[in-house]
Amino acid sequence: MYLTPQHILLAGATGLTGEHLLDRLLNEPTVSRVLAPTRRPLAEHPHLENPVGDPAVFLPQLAGRVDIAFCCLGTTIKQAGSEPAFRAVDLDMVVAFGKRAREMGARHLLVVSALGADRRSPIFYNRVKGEMEAALKAQDWPQLTIARPSLLLGDRVEPRLSERLAGPLSKLIPGKYRGIEACQLARALWRLALEEQDGIRIVESDELRRLGK
């Protein structure tokens, strides 16, 4: 079965994947409203609502019907400045977004996690992503889709040196470890959003690439 979502809540619309997803959503004839809170303003669009400011302030104030929520939030320890600051975004903010989306009536949450996410991992990044996934599962969503992309490829507003260096090599790696273009991930997320499948679904990077072709 396929849903026809009309009202979308999107977090992370200014990020690499979020930008591609937002563009797709605003050009979908079945989508009548995209609510996309951001820290900096987005370009105006008749179907876009864009609260601007501190998420901690406006998140509880978001209102209106929501059918499906997408969470593309994510940073790096370098960008955040410290491990606690990284956790505040990639764990705390994501979990708070999921909670608010559920309160607004969303039945399906799609979240961008990472390849290797595991709350028992000795690697800090993977451990935080795993803790985030576990916290969202505990919110008891009717439908929860967790996307685990490998290295994201694409042109960022603020380029990440590690991605620029590893990007060409990642294209040569087989299977789920091969890098994935952000535009492919965005297309895959939209396809997954249209599928009605109760429960939790974890989608690894190789399947995301296939869905995003």
TrEMBL record:
Gene Ontology terms for molecular function: NAD binding; oxidoreductase activity, acting on the aldehyde or oxo group of donors, NAD or NADP as acceptor
SUPFAM superfamilies: NAD(P)-binding Rossmann-fold domains
Residues in Semialdehyde dehydrogenase NAD-binding domain copies: 7-104
Cited Pfam families: NAD_binding_10
Stated name of the protein: Semialdehyde dehydrogenase NAD-binding domain-containing protein
Organism: Pseudomonas wadenswilerensis
